[in-house]
Structures are given as C-alpha cells and as structure tokens.
Amino acid sequence: xxxxxxxxxxxxxxxxxxxxxxxxxxxxxxxxxxxxxxxxxxxxxxxxxxxxxxxxxxxxxxxxxxxxxxxxxxxxxxxxxxxxxxxxxxxxxxxxxxxxxxxxxxxxxxxxxxxxxxxxxxxxxxxxxxxxxxxxxxxxxxxxxxxxxxxxxxxxxxxxxxxxxxxxxxxxxxxxxxxxxxxxxxxxxxxxxxxxxxxxxxxxxxxxxxxxxxxxxxxxxxxxxxxxxxxxxxxxxxxxxxxxxxxxxxxxxxxxxxxxxxxxxxxxxxxxxxxxxxxxxxxxxxxxxxxxxxxxxxxxxxxxxxxxxxxxxxxxxxxxxxxxxxxxxxxxxxxxxxxxxxxxxxxxxxxxxxxxxxxxxxxxxxxxxxxxxxxxxxxxxxxxxxxxxxxxxxxxxxxxxxxxxxxxxxxxxxxxxxxxxxxxxxxxxxxxxxxx
Length: 436
Ligand SMILES: *[C@@H]1O[C@H](CO)[C@@H](O)[C@H](O)[C@H]1NC(C)=O
Prior knowledge:
alpha/beta
C-alpha cells in the first residue's frame, strides 16, 4: 500500500499546482501513506499509476451495479411494453423515500476514498460506532451519517464503493481530500458533479428501458442536495499573507456556486450547503511550528486561519443569498459550520470536552497530541480512552462524539440561513423503513 500511495506521484504533484507545494513540504517527511491520508483532508497526493487504475476499475463496476444495464444490454432493448408498465406501476406504488446526493471531502466521506484508492484502513478507525474501519476518517460517523439517521434513512453509500452499496436513498460523491477548485485534486467538485450526471442519466435510461433503477425521476427532483466542501481549498492557501488569502477565496466560492447552478439546471431544488469549520482550532494546524503565541486567540486557536475560514463562509453565504434571488423555485440553505464548530471549542466544558485542541489519536501527548510525521493509525499512537470526549480524532477530522454534537446543532436550524430545519426541506421516512 505504501508504495502505491507514495510512488509515481510526480505527475499529480505537478497538476496540483504550486499552491500546495508548501503543504507538501510540511508533509514531506511523512513516510506511511495512511499518515498522509489522516493528516490532511485528503488522500495522499500520489498513487498516480495505481490510483488511476483503481479508480477506473471501481467506477466501472459501480456504474454497472445500480441499474445493471450495461451487462444486460441485449435483454434491455427487447423489453416489451408489459415490462415497462410493470416497472411504472412498481415505481408508483413505492412511497417517495428520502433521497440525498452529497458532494464533499473527508468531512462527509463515508468510505469513498478507501474504496477508490484501495486503502486498507486499520483499527482504531471506526472503533466508537461501527466497531470496525469503514473508510471514514473518524472513530465513527461523519456529520452526513447523523443527517441520514435523522431522516430515518440508511447511511449514504459512496459512489465508487463496489461492494455492499445501496443507492436507493441517494449517493455520496464525497471523496476525502477533494477541493472545490477543479484540477487541484482528482475528485474535485466538478468531477463529483459529472459523476452525479452520469449516475442520473444511467438511472433514467434504465427506467426508460423498463428496468428498475435506484432513483427515479421524481426521486431526483425531490432529493436533498448537500455540499460540504472548501476546507481543502482554504487549507491549501493558509500559508499565504492574509491579503493574498482573501484574494484567492472568491474563485473557490465561485466553483461551489457553479455546482449549485448546474444541479439546479438538472432539476435539483433543495440545497443544504455547509460552510467550512474553525480551521485555526485543528490540532494539525496548531502543531505547526510558530515563533510565539501572539497569533492565537483567547481559546488557543490561530486567529488568521479562523479569519480566513470565516471570510470564506461569509462569501459562500452571500453567494447563497444571490442564488436564492435567482432560483426562486428552490430552497437554498447555508449552514454556518464555523459557528457550530467554534462553539464546540469555545464552550467545550458545556459539552463535556476536556481538551478541545488535542487529538484523541496521535503522537506526542499534550498540548496537541499531534505529530506531522506520525499521525493516528501508525503503531504506538497515543490513543484516548474509548468513551473519552474529544473533538479531534486525528488532528483534522472529528470524532463520532463531536460529529454527533455538530450534527445536532446543524439539524437544529439555529445556524441556518434562512433559519429552517432540515425537516423543513425533507420529510423523514417512517421509522419502520429505517435500515441503519
Ligand atoms: C458560547 O456559549 C454562549 C452561551 O450559549 C454563546 O452565547 C456564545 O456565542 C458561545 N461562544 C461561541 C464562540 O460560540
């Protein structure tokens, strides 16, 4: 695995641009692939050869899975009218279920990157909830999992996970490490969008042929479209002077806008858009060498990084305001993830959290328990006790416990613009339909 992740990365590295070079310098000393994976919101920037092959394999097998149309091409075209009628009747009888399409990075990746890159993620990942690794970069669930649970629907299957996927309640296109900016990463938002369009076309085509498909036309129209992306874009420019950071934010937000517009053009009407979190409070950032503590705020977070995150969110929120005027037939909700996540740090005692800036799984002990050279998931890590309440799992990603707290706040509607709850957009399935 280490060779697949670390070898032959030159091409990709070049593609990812100069912006990220500084980041790679920080990560340059990292030996094990999994360490890199855990330390960023992204998979290792390498694996150009092996990764590309794996991607193609995974996506073609997955593409065939939902409708099975490709393999059964001959039967399909001879399908009679009767078969078509039967399928239509079955679709009509099926109650409109909850359907969610998610786009994002590791914050909402439910196993995509592990499947695509062929990464074997070892325990303790998953230990707090699933009790085995699932490819989520956490000890348990991500926020999206809690959102699905609140809608009484099962966790979203990653688009490119060939085994055990069930797309009847939608698809998760999120891949750890992804950026909103095209070309910076293999599964940037534009690619995720293309994957969605591919999936949608295949579904509608299957139905047209009289076959079954996981989501029908109505499903696509009434679905919830969620996005949680931009963390990697902002993280990639944090080393710049603040004025340079500000100049680079609008194009990132423009990509998210473009994606929403494109989805809208394709029939999407319900949008749930997450901003970025308190990047300056992440142990990974805090563990970077600094001259003194003058850049830290009253809660020990890096002011400049948090200001950048807040500015990104302000721009994204404004963009959502603009889109609301433009798309009067749609509901576009922006969720202020910075406020949600910063509150967890600032008011940590209220949430039963002792050390808000320290990882549960890392190296080196207090104050941050984070070593850029040896992240969580390498042997002899300093691991917190099971059940201990930590915000940070590995220095970048949240624990199951913290994601649960974040999700509760997200679902409350209190951090939403406009101030509506998710259940104002989507009616949860009846509990009996739940297959958690
Ligand atoms: C901390 O909690 C108080 C009381 O609920 C709230 O007013 C304040 O905004 C919170 N602080 C942050 C940084 O979210």
